[in-house]
Amino acid sequence: MENRINHIIARVLSGESSSDDILSLSEWLNEDEKNRDEFRRLKNYWDADVAFKHSVAPAFSADKLQQKINVQRRQTDRRQMWRNAIPLIAAACLLFIFSTAFFLYNTNDRTSEYCTLLAGEHTSHFTLEDGTVITLNKNSRLSYSDRYGKGSRDVKLEGEAYFEVAKDPGKPFQVKMNGASITVLGTHFNVKADAQSDDITATLVEGSIRFEGAKQNIVMTPNQQLTFSRSTNKVDVKEIDTDTFTAWKDGLLKYKSISFTRLVENLKDIYQVEIQIDDERLADPSVTVSGTFDQKQSIEQILKVISYSLPVRWTNNNGVYHIQYATLKKTMPMREH
Length: 337
What we know:
The chain is an alpha+beta fold. It is built from eight helices and 18 strands. The chain has helices spanning 2-14, 19-31, 33-51, 62-69, 78-100, 242-246, 260-271, 299-307, and strands at residues 114-118, 124-127, 133-136, 141-145, 153-164, 173-177, 180-184, 188-193, 199-206, 209-212, 217-220, 224-229, 235-239, 252-259, 274-277, 288-294, 312-317, 320-325. The strands form three sheets. Strands 1, 2, 3, 4, 5, 6, 7, 8, 9, 10, 11, 12 and 13 form a 13-stranded mixed β-sheet that branches. It has a three-stranded mixed β-sheet with strand order 15-18-17, with helices on one face. The protein has a two-stranded antiparallel ribbon with strand order 14-16. Strand 6 and strand 7 (180-184) form a beta hairpin. Helix 1 crosses helix 2 (19-31) and helix 2 packs across helix 3. It is elongated. 19% of the residues are buried. Mean pLDDT is 78; it is low at 49-66, 68-79, 93-110 and 328-337.
């Protein structure tokens, strides 16, 4: 078999291959990664030998290659033969792509392929090959190169994600966003970087992270939250209750003394519905709410719970929820679920 495949390789590289040769080569390449490595080495040598006439490493000397593939090429100019072989090599590459999901490439000029993780209408959990656990909030996207973990651990984020990074001091973990990045060695943190939002928000639960913006290089400590404005390059860091900002990964919506208007904005974003506050008294920043909701609850159920602690009533008019002020008949804390 080895002698036969050597002849096939020689015919393919010299431009004398048949369609059967190309098919046989494709099957051989698909059998083992070692076969693909061997063919890449031979092809790289052939390219260099034809194009530059320079010396190569002893392991890939002309004599060894001559013996390995038992060349049957014509006694004409090699450059002209290579130009004639281009259509056949292109056909072989197409066959590899569609039949084996493998294409020929020069390792020095390799373009990385990216794996993309998507979360649809629900949060999704993923574990990368190094043990890092990532929880993606709904409608979020995370991508990383097929070289992840080999020399570095870089990911790109659009949306919101909670990271539990596996420790590896020799390979820092980096989250890249449009306009900023976060670098860690091993820690738990939350990042929100919606494409349509001007702000990037990083919340550190444990460990430490380094945030890098256009002009910033800030090391954060636990229970801190950093907000970065992409348009102004301004940064704000404050102490917060991290549970409030990471509860979503457990399927909960948790709020602590936030304004009612901010709660409404969050509900509009989460449930993708239109909500209008029809009374100025409810839009006053001093009107605050606290509580915990289950994300499985409907918007109507959540509005009902809110009505237990705030003097509000609501109506649904053609899909738009209108919030009005109402006389508070009973006073009781907001239920937690």
